[in-house]
Amino acid sequence: MIGVLAQASTTDFDIFVQTFFKATALGSLYSLLALGFVLVYKSTQTLNFAQGAMALVGAWFLSLVFIDWDFPARWLPGPNWLHWIIALLVAAAMAAVMGMAIEKYTIRPMIGQPLFSMAMITLALEVILRTISFDAVNLTTRSLGVPWGTRIFMLGGARVAWSYIAATAMALLAFVAIWRFFKTRMGIAMRATSFDQEAAMAQGINVSRVFSIAWASGASLAAFAGVFASMSPWPSGGTANRDGAFFVFRALPAVVLGGLDSVVGALVGGMIIGFSEIYAGQYLANYTGVLGVGYQQVIPYLVMLVGLLVRPYGLYGTVEVRRV
Amino acid sequence: MSGPLLELDGISLSFKGVKAITDVSFKVGEGELFAIIGPNGAGKTSIFNSISQVYRPQEGDIRWKGKSIMGQRPDHIAGMGIARTFQNIELFPHMTVLENLLLGRHIRMKTSWLAGALWLGPAKREEMTNRRAVEDIIDFLEIERWRKHPVALLPYGFQKRVELGRALAMEPELLLLDEPVAGMNLEETEDMARFILDIRQELGISILLVEHDMGLVMDVADRVLVLDFGQKISEGEPAEVQRDPAVIAAYLGDEAGLAAADS
Ligand SMILES: Nc1ncnc2c1ncn2[C@@H]1O[C@H](COP(=O)(O)OP(=O)(O)O)[C@@H](O)[C@H]1O
Ligand SMILES: [Mg+2]
Predict the structure, then answer these.
(1) Cβ contact (<8 Å) for B117 and A177?
(2) Considering only CA atoms, which of A53, A57, A52, A21 is closest in space to residue A34?
(3) Fewer CB within 10 Å, N or C, chain B?
(4) Which atom number of ligand 1 is nearest to the Cα of residue B40?
(5) Residue spans per domain, chain B
(6) Which of these CATH numbers, 3.30.70.270, 3.40.50.720, 3.40.50.300, 3.40.1710.10, describes B1-81+172-263?
């Protein structure tokens, strides 16, 4: 922020606009993570606390595919950005496979166990994945090779990072895709399974397959979020590293605020948290003496608490459906 | 194919030592309307759940077209052409009537989820075909006016119809109906009886029907099996079964049952 203030030509309005784009981008990232979380929760009733670690692993995968293996460029002609997008899709596919494996080997055997045990398993997964990927990403500087790097563009006097636009576009794409998916055969099957497994099976729906697809989507969404959250000017600055993981872990308040089982909630919750965090960071910066340094990282939890006081199941969450 | 469509052979099922079904055998032939009656708790729903393989009977064998289906997954059973309704309606209440029926088409649709998500041509064509099939069922069951309503908003009797429609959407060879007229008034019951008879006659679907009172069963069934405390106490044509002393004894004191038997 200091760099921005130094620009003499930057007006209050420009700062507002800059902040707006940044907030939209952060909100998008939280929404993406929340979306993955919601998909998994809706279909398998599992609170996936490993979502943050999965995001970091996703960023690591991209670095492996794009930088280490130089995979798309070796096989395909074409511009760098195209290779990067292909690498991103490959990384997301790798994350999907990881998600399916996690579901098959750790979640499915536990089906029918209390919610709490399932949550403990995902917490353990979080620790394991984080440890593995920290080791992996700390050995070398893991560049993500982001095509637009640190570039920005000017909107009037406001400076906007291309990364912000990219993150917002990514989230938009993901939400449209999921919204469409829910209208397809498998999507309807997933909604049905999340409500009543026995009745779903009676329709010939392969419930294990639904779980598998839910975890695959959840993990890919996490990977996308992880990649876009690791770009400059976010703290990770274009590499897969620890900062990304901690950053991403703060998406939890967005999920809880929006409602654990609502896709719309994921979007709205993510945006509200993103906006409060960024705007508070921008406009309350003069009060660090009172609020303490790093106060904006507490904002998401504060907003979540207030939201929960008003609506205990989240803004869009279903009140525990009672079946007769 | 000459053998029976469905065959239960010495099925016994217990829950932690409590016997729900004891050594029950019967066969349902092609095109037949076979009914199971018995008081509450007799084990009727448990028989359905055993056929669906939601419950796993400890003894006996269940054969579909001569082949054992024991140990299959419930969704595979549905895929074989065995559709069912539930005693306590198990529709998806937040979804519309149309969506609920489309769910019944799940096994009839083949496009991959990826093609579906990307809304590729084949996925679109397939959806159109399925929508037509669903509209036919909507006409057949006379529920046009509810098409776009969330199921939760429908009156009980219509929910029962939608659930029947969802089972029909699977284009099954055998339909398992668990108390299709429970809680219905006389008019609704007569409508449902008409649908059941039409399904058998016009669509040629075999039906296994479970009821706790005799009224409907005696009117529509070809053959009846009477269950009491998980055991078969009688089997035969409706008129035979009604005269069976064992059945009369079992229903003694159950006035609804007796009244129905007398009529
Ligand atoms: N899931 C279950 N767990 C324990 N007992 C069950 C279960 N399902 C059915 N039962 C028992 O099996 C017996 C038969 O029940 P059910 O098949 O529902 O009878 P019906 O459909 O004829 O009313 C009852 O005693 C019931 O309590
Ligand atoms: Mg029953």
Answers:
(1) yes
(2) A52
(3) N
(4) 23
(5) 1-81+172-263, 94-169
(6) 3.40.50.300
Which of the residues B94, B106, B125, B174 would you substitute to probe the A interface, choosing the one with the greatest number of A C-beta atoms within 10 Å?
Answer: B106
Query: Which of B75, B99, B103 minimises the CB distance to A206?
Result: B75
Taking the CA of residue A167 and the nearest CA in chain B, the distance in Å comes to: 21
What separation in Å is there between the alpha carbon of B15 and the centre of ligand 2? 15
Ligand 1 centre to CA of A195 (Å) is 23
**Any chain B CB within 8 A of the CB of A310?**
no
Q: Judge if ipTM > 0.90.
A: no
Residue contact B86–A180, C-beta within 8 A: no
Q: Answer whether B223 contacts ligand 1 (Cβ < 6 A).
A: no
Helix/strand/coil (H, E, C) string of chain B? CCCCCEEEEEEEEEECCEEEEEEEEEEECCCCEEEEECCCCCCHHHHHHHHCCCCCCCEEEEEECCEECCCCCHHHHHHCCEEECCCCCCCCCCCEHHHHHHHHCHHHCCCCHHHHHHCCHHHHHHHHHHHHHHHHHHHHCCCHHHCCCEHHHCCHHHHHHHHHHHHHHCCCCEEEEECCCCCCCHHHHHHHHHHHHHHHHHHCCEEEEEECCHHHHHHHCCEEEEEECCEEEEEECHHHHHHCHHHHHHHCCCHHHHHHHHC
Chain A hits for B166, Cβ within 8 Å: 203
Does domain A2-310 fall under CATH 2.40.128? My reply is no
Mean pLDDT check: name the lowest of A3-17, A148-162, A168-182, A216-230: A3-17
Kindly state the helix (H) or strand (E) to which residue B7 belongs, with its residue range: strand B6-15
